[in-house]
Amino acid sequence: MAKQIFINLAVKDVQKSMDFYTALGFTNNPQFSDDAGKCMVWCENIFLMILSHEKFSSFATKPIADTKSSLAGLFSLSMDSLEEVNSVVENGLKAGGTEPHEIRDYGFMQQRSIEDFDGHTWEIFYMDLSKMPTE
Description:
The protein is α/β, with parallel strands linked by helices and 135 residues long. The chain contains 3 helices and 8 strands.
């Protein structure tokens, strides 16, 4: 079996979150989804599990963090162009996400951030390795 990554996030409204992540470009895998959780596919080996607080708690050993007021992690998604970065973030904003700060330009990498309804932060970026500093 190929190595895979599953990111699990606690969300207050599973359907609203599924709509948001669909707008970002994820697709739903109904085989691993129910009313309390949705499996959202980014690519062949990367999956996002958006789980109700009740379902998430059944797997957790600590209280669920309030990600609206505290940062619990940063999740990053690479794109093939700056135009694609802008498109993904704009789609997420139209679906109700918020952009906590302006685009960041590091010369070789441009990055925009978007937060979902629960405050989970995603960094959407494009990196041009030909512009990577050599020092």
